[in-house]
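In this section we walk through a basic example: taking a raw amino acid sequence and producing a predicted 3D structure, encoded as discrete structure tokens. The instruction is simple. Fold the sequence below.
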Amino acid sequence: MPSFLRAAGTWAFSQPYLLLALMALFWAVNVVLGRYIAGHVPPVALSFIRWAGAFCIVLPFAWPHLRRDWAEIRRRLGFMTVLSITGISAYNTMAYYGLQFTQALNGLVLQSTGPLFVALWSFLLFGERLSAKQMVGITMSLCGVLVIISRGDLGVLLAIAFNAGDLWIVGGIVVFAFYSALMKRRPEIHQLSFLAFTMGCGALWLIPFLALEIRSGYVLTFDPLTLATLAYVTTFPSLVAYLFFNRGVELIGPNRAAPFLHLTPVFGSVLAIAFLGEEPHLFHAVGYALVLAGITIATRGASPPRRSARAADRPGS
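The resulting token sequence is shown next.
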């Protein structure tokens, strides 16, 4: 690899705000796509192939690091398994299942509650309290999300009808918030070791549920739409976005990273304007400004979490 590309990659991997913004973009596409293919691609099969495929992609690059880190992974096996189930197996499958029964609008509204659940889990598990700036920032960015989704009309929000699919999505968000809070205590191993293990382990835990789905007659049809969907979900919202999310949390902590989840519905609305023919309005600008201002407030004025010498000595860890 040319030296300038290596230097650019090293710089980018040290920019948590850039990484977290790209993560939100990839996940926004994933939400819109998940709703678009609802009823066409079975949710458990989609989740299993997503993570099994991502595992196969990352394994050749992660193998040397896995061998080196295996002793530490075995020592923290229970904790690593919990991370695999919550961050990989459960969250995504529950979200895909919920999108079978609800609208993308509902999913985007519910996604905006993520930072609040991260803050709640961080407090319950580790006694971490939000600073005043973080609380103001999260509230402001949440208001921005609601402005965008409601089109500046409170009546739109009041008219939204929630159903069982929404409960599945909320459950998935609660589980992912638990994973996000636990990431503060993840083992000090290489990023690729962590990704490879959690993706592989998460895929394995989905196999029994995949068997039940197939037995019920809900099987995958390999047509162009399915193949294009699988190609996307195994790379950008899985491998790339999780790498960026994990690195962002490592650099600035879960409470400071969580407000970036509010960018997911923001990007979702931009995608709707760009690809679904929706027209931009003043409320879009107001909502975007509130979200960006909230993220700026929430992520400033706090020191990033300290890393041990062992973790800091590892390039790309």
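Looking at the output, two observations stand out. The mean pLDDT is 85. The CA atoms of residues 62 and 192 lie 5 Å apart. In the next section we compare this with other chains.
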